[in-house]
């Protein structure tokens, strides 16, 4: 890549594109060429940066000046003033309250915000995701080259084990251990699957990675395939993620053109092919065995386990399934070593975690922070406090499949073991932060309604239990509940946890359990006093 005096980056996430980012880019390009600055200035479109109000934005390096929202008609003036005359344009700069996600990270590098420790998102918002050379010049494919030239498959698995990396989809299963299971299963044919079916409401971290750094997933899957003895992989991605699919397909084609996919990769005996499989929007297909059924062309229903995919997966062959965020950690671990990775996070949960911050806070968006940070720190430092200074009441983690977290746990380290010991789960990465005006019964009802609609219906505890739980919660919210309803809810929750066939049904019991454990008095007020303390529930006297 040629040396330039300035880099101009234009956001190209779906919201930015809807607001005219492509035309902003073209107008900037035209003006740069008109002023004869093409040899001095690099212009690129970059990936998603998390949701905020300054879209589309333009970042100009090396100053890290952020403009936004930028309209197509602003482009000429911006180039003339900042790039030609060297003067910042204050009236186009993004306001502080709009700076979130990657924007916040840029400011962290300038010393205005606590720095995030980025491993997974280290290139997102920095490189052009459609340019393989930009990925390569930013340490891309170094880990794969190192693995194929210096390490045996066993060495790779041991390095991943030593890092302590745990699955980032919510369960927290040790990644190296899972790789070892697939590697240890003898078979002529094995598969690697990247689970990009990001189904949880409020979670968009995987989309950001796939749109902003697709080559990192290709590199990670290739390393995983070498380690477990696979020669074919699938990226299963939500059908709604059109931009991510487009960029993945471009990245895969580039990787083939550069000899990084296909036969005899880097001159070795290792062969690997990757296919993109678009999902149809079913929440249940985020469950790994339902996902496998979908790839095989069947209805997306979970399989009974055992056997597990590690021994009997896609088309009955040993299959490694990891989610996007988990895989995005792999290249950095193999470049720097497991010991380096353990310098982040906690002893039992090393590394970082990507969260999407939503709800009644001043700043929403996406962050990557060390495992073990507390909810109080996230709210105060990254979310900039609660809106209108209304007190924090409850958080809901991981989209629908996480836990309802009371204020009493906001100083508990957010890692797998600390949360498990507290009786809650970390979830996949969404953080819905709610103030004291939120009714926890209404929140649980919304979640239960989601599970009711998304259940595949294969097993009775999930199909019947979620329907009945929603009916009971609806009755309580209408003021027609009874104390017996609370015992019934507790039994339904227990049955969902213990008898459901898959993770959807098992996690569907969480909202009920959590409100009974942490907010029973508020729920009982709906029954005994016929009032909603938060003033949310209608209390109309109707009963299902």
Q: Radius of gyration over alpha carbons?
A: 24 Å
Tell me the major beta sheet: 5 strands, mixed
Number of helical runs? Answer: 23
Q: How many beta-strand elements?
A: 13
Distance between the termini: 66 Å
- The order of strands across the largest sheet is 10-9-13-11-12
Any idea what the CATH architecture of the largest domain is?
3-Layer(aba) Sandwich
Output the CATH homologous superfamily of the largest domain.
NADH-ubiquinone oxidoreductase 51kDa subunit
Assign an overall shape.
globular
Structure description:
α19 (460-477) runs antiparallel to α20 (483-499). The chain has helices at residues 14-18, 21-34, 75-84, 101-109, 132-137, 142-150, 153-163, 175-183, 205-212, 214-228, 242-257, 288-295, 324-328, 330-336, 338-341, 375-382, 416-421, 440-454, 460-477, 483-499, 503-508, 510-518, 520-528; strands at 6-11, 41-46, 58-61, 65-67, 191-196, 232-237, 273-278, 319-323, 352-359, 365-370, 392-397, 404-406, 430-435. Helices cover 41% and strands 13% of the residues. The chain has 23 helices and 13 strands. β11 and β12 (404-406) form a beta hairpin. Strands 10-9-13-11-12 form a five-stranded mixed beta sheet. It has a four-stranded mixed beta sheet with strand order 2-1-3-4, with helices on one face. Strands 7-6-5-8 form a four-stranded parallel beta sheet, with helices on both faces. It folds into four domains: 6-109, 3-Layer(aba) Sandwich (Glutaredoxin); 132-339, 3-Layer(aba) Sandwich (Rossmann fold), CATH 3.40.50; 352-435, Ubiquitin-like (UB roll) (Roll); 440-528, NADH-ubiquinone oxidoreductase 51kDa subunit, iron-sulphur binding domain (de novo design (two linked rop proteins), Up-down Bundle), CATH 1.20.1440. With 544 residues, the protein is of the alpha/beta class.
């Amino acid at each position: 890549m040629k040396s330039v005096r300035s880099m101009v980056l234009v956001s190209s996430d779906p919201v930015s594109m809807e607001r005219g980012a492509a035309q902003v880019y073209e107008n900037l390009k035209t003006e740069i060429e008109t002023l004869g600055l093409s040899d001095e200035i690099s212009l690129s479109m970059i990936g998603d940066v998390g949701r905020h109000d300054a879209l589309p934005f333009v970042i100009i390096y090396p100053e890290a000046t952020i403009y936004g929202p930028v309209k197509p008609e602003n482009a000429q003036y911006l180039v003339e003033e900042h790039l030609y005359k060297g003067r910042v344009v204050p009236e186009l700069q993004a306001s502080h309250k709009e700076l979130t996600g990657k924007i916040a990270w840029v400011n962290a590098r300038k010393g205005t915000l606590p720095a995030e420790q980025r491993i997974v998102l280290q290139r997102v918002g920095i490189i052009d995701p459609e340019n393989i050379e930009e990925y390569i010049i930013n340490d891309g494919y170094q880990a794969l080259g190192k693995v194929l030239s210096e390490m045996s498959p066993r060495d790779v698995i041991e390095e991943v084990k030593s890092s302590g990396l745990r699955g980032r989809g919510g369960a927290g299963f040790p990644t190296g251990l899972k790789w070892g299971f697939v590697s240890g299963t003898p078979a002529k044919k094995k598969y690697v699957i990247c689970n990009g079916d990001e189904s949880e409401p409020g979670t968009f971290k995987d989309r950001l990675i796939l749109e902003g750094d697709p080559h990192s997933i290709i590199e990670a899957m290739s390393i995983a395939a070498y380690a477990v003895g696979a020669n074919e992989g699938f990226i299963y991605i939500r059908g709604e993620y059109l931009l991510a699919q487009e960029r993945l397909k471009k990245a895969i084609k580039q990787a083939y053109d550069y000899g990084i996919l296909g036969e005899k990769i880097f001159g070795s005996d290792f062969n690997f092919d990757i296919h993109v499989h678009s999902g149809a929007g079913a929440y249940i297909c985020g469950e790994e065995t339902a996902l496998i059924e979908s790839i095989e062309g069947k209805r997306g229903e979970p399989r009974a386990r055992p056997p597990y995919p590690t021994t009997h997966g896609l088309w009955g062959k040993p299959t490694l399934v990891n989610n996007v965020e988990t895989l995005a950690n792999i290249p950095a671990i193999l470049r720097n070593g497991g010991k380096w990775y353990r310098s982040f996070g906690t002893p039992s949960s090393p590394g970082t975690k990507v969260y999407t911050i939503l709800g009644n806070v001043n700043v929403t968006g996406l962050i990557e922070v060390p495992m073990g940070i507390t909810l109080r720190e996230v709210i105060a430092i990254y979310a900039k406090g609660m809106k209108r200074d209304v007190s924090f009441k409850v958080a809901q983690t991981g989209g629908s499949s996480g836990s309802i977290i009371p204020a009493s746990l906001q100083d508990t380290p957010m890692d797998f073991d600390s949360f498990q010991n507290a009786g809650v789960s970390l979830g996949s990465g969404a953080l819905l932060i709610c103030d004291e005006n939120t009714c926890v019964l209404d929140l649980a009802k919304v979640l239960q309604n989601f599970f009711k609609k998304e259940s595949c219906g294969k097993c009775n505890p999930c199909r019947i239990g979620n329907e009945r739980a929603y009916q009971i919660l609806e009755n309580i919210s209408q003021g027609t509940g009874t104390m017996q309803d609370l015992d019934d809810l507790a039994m339904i929750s227990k049955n969902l946890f213990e008898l459901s066939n898959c993770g959807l049904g098992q996690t569907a019991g969480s909202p009920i359990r959590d409100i009974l454990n942490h907010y029973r008095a508020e729920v009982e007020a709906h029954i005994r006093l016929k009032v909603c303390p938060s003033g949310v529930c209608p209390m109309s006297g109707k009963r299902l």
